[in-house]
Amino acid sequence: MNDFEAGRPVVLRGGTVLPMSPSGSRRVLPRTDVLVTGDRIAAVGPELEAPEDAVVIDASGGLVMPGMIDTHRHMWQTALRGYGADWTLTQYFVWFYLEHGKLFRPEDIHAGNTLAAIEALDAGVTTVVDWSHGLRTVDHADAAADALESVPGRYVLAYGNIQQPPAEWTAAPEFRDFVRRRVTGGDMLGFQIAFDVLGDPSFPERPAFEVARELGAAVTTHAGVWGATSDDGIRLMHEHGFMTPETIYVHAASLSADSYHRIAATGGSISVSTESEQSAGQGYPPTWAVRAHGIPVSLSMDTSVWWSGDLFSAMRATLGADRSREHLEAHAKGETVTHCGLRADQVVEWATRGGARALGRDDLGAVEPGRKADLVLVKNEHSPVSFPILNPFGHVAFQAQRGDVHTVIVNGRVVKHEHRLLGVDLAGARAHVERTVEHLRSTMGDAAWEKGMNPDIPSAKVLDNPYTYTDYRSDATHRL
């Protein structure tokens, strides 16, 4: 009998559990069992009784935590892993928005999404918002959804199209047909609408917001991106009544206190992509400023065309950026920081329950009876970094990495065990990605392909609006 056949109970024995409970996110439960039956956590406690047919996973010496949740990942770009390592944000805009994003076929979207979904599970990320702004046609959208449904994780398809105005593609009959066919309200594949608000006083994005409202879909938007989306976009959304608790503001790295007040007042949340913000130039990673406004935070990794596809890196980078800014601000005033304002347990909370809260999924993000069984066991008996575990939250945030993910459970199903993925066709994913790379390289030509990794852009040129549906240009000269 297959140890992990569908429906068979699973019990993780003797691990240190990080419950991430709303009633006390810093609680730690040593030598504790977690029992999974069906798709739910049935019990959490020491020496639990388990059904006779339960699979026993030895979690002793390891950490059991909720599955991590990434609220902003351009999964379709994963086939180009590392290609843009030396890009600025302007170079990213030129490559994807203006020049070569149009070359991606539906099968290329499928290849990128499949690989991204697999690598997320491998790193203990059990839920991902696929910020899918490469959906030029509904065929591309179907390919994206097909890929997500082929990998045993939990996903939210955030439908977007950088090649058309939001008001245009959201009004298309084929978009409505896609929503009718594919958005079923199921448990494993959710739906959002993804587009940006540039700040054009005519507010050309309004029809897209109205479609989202009509469909009951949350909007996710790149806000506070230096020189591209500014306070004007937030103000327009607010004045027209389109800021809601379900809205996720990605980056929010170059906004004013006024915008943060508006986000806080309307109950939205911010998805921080620290590796992205500190490297590409959206603005300084904003957690040091956001914390003062009490705005809920989740974490994301943005795109593998640049950065690592795991949230261990995101947690580590976020702590580093926040503390660095805290020290810098204090030193400028001749002061000394004596206690860290951002703690390790807070970024672990952002990587788990913070994502669940942003998605309106109260059944995710915590290790408690009745919650969905999305769990990660961090344990690596072959690594000298796996011991001692003295500060569990500090270990997750600063010491652990994807290679330490021993077991991953999604919706009660074991999808990774003893550091190996289960039921995943990695060889097939590799072959599909290789075909995508060959298609892009051959279509562009070798010279353009090589140059694309470090394109020449005049140093004085600032591309502050990669979209083509408006001539509006933001003020890229304002200061943080």
Features of the shown structure:
9-stranded mixed β-sheet; 480 residues; 8-stranded parallel β-sheet; alpha/beta
Structure description:
- This protein has helices at residues 89-100, 106-122, 138-149, 166-169, 173-182, 206-215, 231-239, 257-266, 274-280, 287-290, 311-332, 344-358, 392-399, 426-444, 446-452; strands at 10-17, 29-37, 40-45, 55-58, 63-66, 68-73, 125-132, 154-159, 189-194, 218-223, 248-251, 269-272, 297-299, 375-378, 405-410, 413-417, 420-421.
- By secondary structure, it is an alpha/beta fold.
- Helix 2 packs across helix 14, helix 11 (311-332) packs across helix 12 and helix 14 (426-444) crosses helix 15.
- The longest helix is centred in the last third of the chain and has 22 residues, at 311-332.
How many DSSP helices? 15
Major beta sheet summary: 9 strands, mixed
Spans with pLDDT under 50 lasting ≥5 residues? 476-480
Q: What do the pLDDT scores average to?
A: 94
How far is the N terminus from the C terminus?
60 Å
Please tally the β strands and state the result: 17
Oligomer: single chain
Note the overall shape: globular
- Give the proportion of residues in helices: 25-40%
| Beta-strand content bin | 15-25%
Question: Whole-number radius of gyration?
Answer: 22 Å
Give me the secondary-structure category: alpha/beta
What's the short story on this structure?
By secondary structure, this protein is an alpha/beta fold.
How is the topology of this model organized?
Layout: E1 10-17, E2 29-37, E3 40-45, E4 55-58, E5 63-66, E6 68-73, H1 89-100, H2 106-122, E7 125-132, H3 138-149, E8 154-159, H4 166-169, H5 173-182, E9 189-194, H6 206-215, E10 218-223, H7 231-239, E11 248-251, H8 257-266, E12 269-272, H9 274-280, H10 287-290, E13 297-299, H11 311-332, H12 344-358, E14 375-378, H13 392-399, E15 405-410, E16 413-417, E17 420-421, H14 426-444, H15 446-452
Parallel strand pairs: 1-4, 1-5, 6-7, 7-8, 8-9, 9-10, 10-11, 11-12, 12-13
Antiparallel strand pairs: 1-2, 2-3, 5-14, 14-15, 15-16, 16-17
